[in-house]
Amino acid sequence: MALSREEVAALGRLARIELSPEELEHLAPQLDQILEHVAQVSEVAGADVQPTSHPLPLSNVFRADEPRPCLTQDEALSGAPVAQDGRFRVPRILGEEA
Asked: Is 90 within a domain?
């Protein structure tokens, strides 16, 4: 199945990419080759092969959301260059009002 220049131009419009006539001539055979390779992969994958998004099995790597001991407010602020009213004091930015 060979893609025509018109089909490639339509794909470009869908992707909101403006393509020159030279680019259409250049891209049509390349996209055709990509589609041929995808068809070959589809032929190899049988009905017994489950579709996957990753070649290796993935599992949730996040830890359980359980309460744990943490720093007190004073401990957290102990390393701050400047603290004020129990918070980190940072320079004002973008001329914001206090």
From this structure: no
